[in-house]
């Protein structure tokens, strides 16, 4: 096997025992980043040992790193703000996929934006919310809040995460605790917080 292989987004340098995420070729000033490949079982172990909150913080840190790479690819926070949604989602999806978190796409429900990760590892849904919150916030250089819409865990292989303002996120979390399903939560957000449709 070659000492250095896979000259793509991730480089494996076996002679030095390093794995590096390569900087986007179109990103201004971005540098390669050394990474370590961590099995999902280790994250599950972290959850059992340190709890869900610690695992979410860890995932958010990973998300921030992904978001910075997206910003570099699109030209900083201003470049992200001026980029078409499709370009932003494509850049974010690339970073999520290369990191092994799954296949990401976006769904627009009126004004609401839901990020969907398919083939997601079986982790608490809040972990994906933290990951994507960190990624979007770091990429856009502004505060965002993420809410998991798929229940406690992503055992189905699909994680659905609402990206919203702090106020909308707080309302969405409260409605979910009260038993509202995803469609009802989004409908209520469209209705300005009115309790439309009942809990599902």
What does this structure look like?
The protein is built from seven helices and eight strands. With 200 residues, it is an alpha+beta fold. Helices cover 46% and strands 19% of the residues. Strand 5 and strand 6 form a beta hairpin. The strands form two sheets. A four-stranded antiparallel β-sheet has the order 1-2-3-4, with no helix packed on it. Strands 5-6-8-7 form a four-stranded antiparallel β-sheet. Residues 1-7 and 195-200 have low confidence and may be disordered. Helix 2 packs across helix 3 (76-82) and helix 6 packs across helix 7 (182-190). The protein has one domain (8-164): Muramoyl-pentapeptide Carboxypeptidase, domain 2.
SSE topology:
Blueprint: E1 4-5, E2 10-13, E3 18-21, E4 33-35, H1 40-50, H2 52-74, H3 76-82, H4 85-98, E5 103-109, E6 112-118, H5 125-140, E7 145-148, E8 158-164, H6 166-178, H7 182-190
Antiparallel strand pairs: 1-2, 2-3, 3-4, 5-6, 6-8, 7-8
Helix pairs in contact: 1-2, 2-3, 2-4, 2-5, 6-7
How is this structure best summarized?
With 200 residues, the chain is an alpha+beta fold.
User: Percent range for helical residues?
Assistant: 40-55%
Round the mean pLDDT to the nearest integer and report it: 82
> Given the structure, what is the number of helices?
7
Describe the largest sheet. Answer: 4 strands, antiparallel
Major β-sheet strand ordering? 1-2-3-4
Instruction: Please state the second-level CATH architecture.
Output: 2-Layer Sandwich
Please tell me how large the radius of gyration is: 18 Å
Molecular shape: globular
- What is the N-to-C succession of helices and strands? EEEEHHHHEEHEEHH
Tell how many strands the DSSP assignment holds. Answer: 8
**CATH fold label:** Muramoyl-pentapeptide Carboxypeptidase, domain 2
**Which regions have little confidence, pLDDT < 50, spanning 5+ residues?**
1-7, 195-200
As for the number of domains, it is 1
Class from helix and strand fractions: alpha+beta
Beta strand %? 15-25%
Top CATH class? Alpha Beta
């Amino acid at each position: 096997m070659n000492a250095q292989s896979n000259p793509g987004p991730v480089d494996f340098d076996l002679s030095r025992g390093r794995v590096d995420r390569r900087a986007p070729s179109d990103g201004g000033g971005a540098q390669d980043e050394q990474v370590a490949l961590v099995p999902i079982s280790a994250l599950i172990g972290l959850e059992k040992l340190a709890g869900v909150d610690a695992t979410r913080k860890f995932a958010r840190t990973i998300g921030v790193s992904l978001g910075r790479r997206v910003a570099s690819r699109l030209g900083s926070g201003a470049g992200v703000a001026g980029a078409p949604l499709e370009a932003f989602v494509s850049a974010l999806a690339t970073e999520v996929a290369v990191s092994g978190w799954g296949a990401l796409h976006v769904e627009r429900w009126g004004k609401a934006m839901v990020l969907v990760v398919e083939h997601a590892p079986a982790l608490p849904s809040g972990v994906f919310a933290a990951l994507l919150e960190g990624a979007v916030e770091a990429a856009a250089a502004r505060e965002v809040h993420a809410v998991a819409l798929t229940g406690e865990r992503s055992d189905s292989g699909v994680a659905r995460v609402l990206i919203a303002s702090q106020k909308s996120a707080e309302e969405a979390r409260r409605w979910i605790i009260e038993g509202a399903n995803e469609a009802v939560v989004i409908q209520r957000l469209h209705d300005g917080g009115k309790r439309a449709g009942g809990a599902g």
